Amino acid sequence: MIGSKKSLPWRRLSGALIPSLSVLSLMALATPARAQTTCSTNVPITAVTAKADDGNVPSNVLDGKPDTRWSCNGSGCWIRADLGAEKQVGAVDVTWHSGATRNYNYEVATSRDGSTYYNVAANRSARSDQAQRITFTAAPARYVRVTVKGNTTNNWASISEMRVLGCGGTSEPTPPTDPTPPTDPAPPTDPTPPTDPTPPAGGKDGFGVTMIYPTKSGGESWAMAADPTKDSRFDPQNPITKNADGSWKIKATQVRMSVFTSTGYGAGKIPTYNRDQMTSKGYMLAANDWKNIEMTGFVKLNAASDMADNFDWYARGGKHNDSVPCEGSSYKGALHYDGRTRWQKESWHVSYEQAPYKPATSSLKGRWVGFKAVMRNVTAGGKTAVKLELYLNENADKVTWKKIYDMTDAGDWGGDHGKCGASNPAMPMTWGGPIATFRWDSASDVDFKWMSVREIQP
Hints:
Residues 16-167 form the F5/8 type C domain. This protein is mostly beta strands. The protein has one helix spanning 275-281, and strands spanning 41-43, 47-50, 70-73, 77-96, 104-111, 117-124, 132-151, 156-166, 221-223, 234-235, 240-242, 248-250, 254-260, 293-304, 310-317, 330-336, 340-348, 351-354, 358-359, 368-380, 383-393, 402-409, 435-441, 443-455. Strands 1, 2, 3, 4, 5, 6, 7 and 8 form an 8-stranded antiparallel beta sheet that branches.
């Protein structure tokens, strides 16, 4: 399957109408998660629930016996710890069943009320039968949820032991009135972007949508066709239907709409996944791979089971799957259904660095918005870096765009490229990839239109 997450891939909470236990994010295979506060105090768990079980019940994770476990069959199974009251938490210890022989894909989320959850970690477990600690930025929470997106052997979620770790005892500062999502520590960023609409600089595309950057002369480009079902360069991977207003509808809870370059895609044509060699060449498959690009899409969220999930526009890699993990590199620009935004750096599938969340807008449900992700190579400190920008058109008028995120990956953001032959594990992903992807999860009804991917002059 093209572009599977991220997300987490990882990027993300697996949707359920009931509060679901966020995927437990073990950071052992990637750069260790960086907590702002050392949290090592065991916090008593008063209750534990799960999406389902096969007779190996959730309470087994609290019995201190490594030969018992909770288990659930199916990607997206979750288990949730209830601490009884809000505690300042910053880590989770998880002992995975048969952890020495398989890697589990997971996410971790926290909640103060059992309804609104925020992702705090997402990655893949290391191979070990010992407890693995997942750390994240300390935040007040009553519930900690671990969601499992299968493992390298099958789709089972299975945890032998789990505990939650607090920071400096059980008393917390008075929480703010509005819930503030926990964030990962901030990578180096440019100054806070302006909130005023960005003045048009690149003219308009074929849909009449203002371009932030002009299209490169003779560069690679793609625009959504009048009938995208007949476009060989576009693969929605799910049925799509045309609406009366000319927009299109997709009803699927896992969407990966892939856009290929004019060269097309073939995994067998990719000569190497070695990061140093790809950096030297500047591409993964071909010289016209998607690299310096502006991705645009207009979406209307009609129904979602998890408002903490998000839209992702991403590129600089190929297919994202477990069989060839080093093909799954990407920069992912995220716009969450609840109005938050951030970038993610996926070194390989699945290994993430998370930029901190920033507020961008109000809830997306029931309204059209435009969303742009821009990634372009720049020079920083005499070396090639990647400038990452996100833009929002809140009223979908095609014109009024505001910058909502602006940062640069100069090789000091973190990363795990050593798995794929890199001399510098934190290197910026300066190469292009054959596939650009419009992705979202946990949304059962979304309308979309005016999508495009354009090569821009960096």
